[in-house]
## 1
Amino acid sequence: MIYSRNSIFFILIVFNVVPFAISGCGYQKISVQDLLNQPIEEVGHFNFSRKYIKSGITVVYLTGSPYEIGLAHGKLCREEILEINKPIFEFYNGMTEESKHWLSKAENLEKQIPAEYIEEMHGIADGSQLEYKKILFLNTVSTISEGRGCFAFSYRDKDSRIITFRQGDMPTETFLYKNMILYIIKPEKGHGFAAILNPGWVDGESGINEKGVTVTQNNISIAQKEWEVMPITLLSRYMLQYSKTIEEADQLLNTQKKYPARLLFVSSPKSAAVFEIANNDKARINMKNGYLATANHARIIPSQPVSGSSYSRLEYANQFLRENPSSMDFDKGLALVRSNKISRRWTRGVQNILSFIFSPSTLDLWIAIAPDSNYIPASYGPFVGFNLMHELYGSGDRPDPDSFPAY
């Protein structure tokens, strides 16, 4: 595939930006206890959906029919949708004859999107007062651009719990919006879930559902050649909303005729698996010996050559996990995720700007408060905890622990 100079610039500068990081305090000034002690601040509501700030994180709770969820999403997050996605909308508005193939690809991808998500996107468009085609483009652009970094690993701790860590990376030369939104979504069908999402996207990126299934997306370094695929945003959402187990996630993938090019890291209270999907190919890698990690390359399905840094990053994590087979805990997980190799502290041009921890058995999740500096990894900041059942239903225990201190 050949891209124009403007398209290449757009891929590098925009599509690698997944602006999940939180508005923030300076690296040395963050007091995690102060964040935890802040009273919940109600920001807005629409029908049965609402927006509030808790422990320094903006949370948006959405419920109802697909259209109602989208409408509330658009109304409650219109400002963030416009601000955070501004470069994508500017690219859309400035499309030339040379770049209009991006829009035609979006329209082709739309044919593979389930009807309920089409309705939800229409709701977002109406709620945010944007034309539907812009929202469609927003929700297909990461599949078209094929770009994303990221890293994930799971381990079985001494109490036989599965713990999953998730890192998100982006080029440091891009702008960095620090307006994270944690979406808590209770749809009419399927399972309620929490996901840290780009406003305006119908996505399952970096999420956990009420059955304890987590889903995250990672780059696979394989070019997209087949276009009769469900966009990766919608496919990961589909898996998160409708999977009770890893086996069910696998079965949902098997219903697809062709695939967007990605690695999907899926974990549950019992185990973890990596799904390699791209074009006509699909493979699965299961957890062995109590741990599993993935970097940005395929290990089973055919792929193009990738940089040595992806291999070395994965081997570093595997070596660490091999050396701690019976003693892995949160402290060791944080030590790994904060290491230079995984956090990319000294990697030129790319920086870790997102970091999350999931506990599938307890439905707890922890979100790193990213430092102000684009050159200090998000994982170096403190992590604040949430419990999915508490956010969905007002029940459930507080996350244990309620936080992790900064590095």
Note: The domain at 18-62+150-404 is CATH 3.60.60.10 (Penicillin V Acylase; Chain A).
## 2
Amino acid sequence: MKITAIKQQVKRQDRYSVYGDGKYLFSFSEGELLSSGLRIGQELDENSLSELKDKATIDKAYDRAINLVSRRPRSEGELRDYLKRKEYENQVSEVVIEKLRARGYVNDEDFAKRWVENRRLLKSTSKRRLAQELKQKRIADDIIRQVLERDETDELEVVKVLVEKKRKQSKYQDELKLMQFLARQGFSYDTIKSAMQSEQ
């Protein structure tokens, strides 16, 4: 098969469509196109074409993953789920994630640390709730444990502030309702009791 055209895409000017014998074959990013050494008029055998198609699949998956992490940081688990939804094979996903990891675009420990810091800024959250949220993001248990061990937030102080805030609402004048609310936030019974006793 002969490469008959290499055209810059209209909607994505950083990507190029490659044609063989007049038919569309695959697309490459500018960087991948340059490293492939492809040129118009080049003859390709079946093996070379198959290898290039595999590279194009990885290149496209990587491009999609980069677009995703550029919007907000993602965990490796979230990226795997995303690539699976896009119907990429596990082998492709692993290559893409390894490239992202090597370039510093994905790092689960850093992700977990930032997640905890941001949640602490936004609202009163228990360590138990944070652990649940990070688990949903498919962060490994050992990373969750390490990050939460380094979190120096005093949960008793957090609950005291929360109790004071909630007491301003009529429904939380009821002790039981307030305790149930705090328990749903993931705080332990002992911490809740201590916080409520300190009010008196």
Note: DSSP finds ten helices and three strands in the chain.
## 3
Amino acid sequence: MAAREWLPSSPSLSSDSAGDRVPVRPLAAISWSGGKDSCAALQRTREAFDVVAMLTMFDEERLRSRSHGLRPEVLTAQAERLGLRQVTGRSSWATYDEAFGTALGELSSAGITHVIFGDILFDEHRRWAEQMCERAGLIAVEPLWGSSTTTLFHEWVASGSEALIVTTRAALLDRRWLGRRLTADLLPRFAELGVDPCGERGEYHTVVTDSPLFRRPLWLRAGDTVQRADCWALDVVPDAAHD
């Protein structure tokens, strides 16, 4: 059931209170890392789908998200601001596919038919998403796929959305980049350093703190900075003083 085009081709219809036939948007979930790409994918699809849930994978103890190393309370705060139900899985990297498939099954059982992903490049990422969804009877949606990462960076900034850098590849971006907000002036510096505008080769990851879809901004408090293997990481927690 994997779809190559992400727009629904023939939405079903229902009757409103006046008896007119109106389109019913397919129920969807967003594969949510907490970073800008998943948020950008959600922003692109908000008119085409009724997104009701977010799916996030955590480590075995549910202490950190698998992709961006975020605390559960950060993801919960984002879900509340988006008005989405949280669906989570726990896994090691070795058991990731199995746990992700179980979480997809939970979405399918809830009547969800589509799952939105924030993939931009790399065919193997898209194939994996499509195959995993197909096994669960779901359709993978890839609204950012094949887009220019420079264009996506500009669109992100222009949308009024905000994200902070929380991990960096140490060989390219040192610890001084941690906590910086994505702004237009970073783009030429990324080019000088050989960093993809959207960090598509793992140069950096972000946490979203605001979006046109958020009910209110997410204020975060910075904690420790640590180096794990070849990456720098910034710990962040919701700032209750601004909640």
Note: The two ends are 41 Å apart (CA to CA).
## 4
Amino acid sequence: MDGSRPLWALALAVLRGFTHILDLFHALEYLWKASHVFHAETSPEAEAFVRERLLDLLRGKVGYVIGGLRQMLTKHRRRLNASQRKTLETVIGYYERNRRYMRYDEYIAAGYPIGSGAVESACRHLVKDRMEGSGMRWTVPGAEAVLKLRAVYLNGDWDPFWQFHMRQEAARRFGRRRWAPLAHPNTSRQVA
């Protein structure tokens, strides 16, 4: 996820037992902000600044990155204007708040994705393409039902799901009695 505090609060309350990961690309945006305090936007120096700290993040050295940015803020405080100081303080605060979700070395070793691009693409494909048509209005239960069916279909599980659903419906309607289609009285074929 990104670093949105309300989103993290919700995820931590609802998704217990999961590994929560700060999207690397959101963390990277903050590195670029910090680099532009000291270097021009398209300069090789800005790129080197980001590359060096990105490698530290990927190695699990978030504390080093935070400490280094703090040192830079202290060392250059007098020559930085108020906006530049505020930018560095924001970056440092962002990393401090999200430090426990930035163990990228562990996530990579465990095979976890550290960027949300695939998830965001799946959300667009699964949710947005279906739910945001012209004039559509959804209740939460209705939207959830449609999205569950869409996920089953898009995953290629429609036929097994439908067989399961028919068995469950037969059990609900007929109890423990075994349900089977009736034979048509005039022919040997069965009708449902």
Note: Residues 29 and 61 are 17 Å apart (CA to CA).
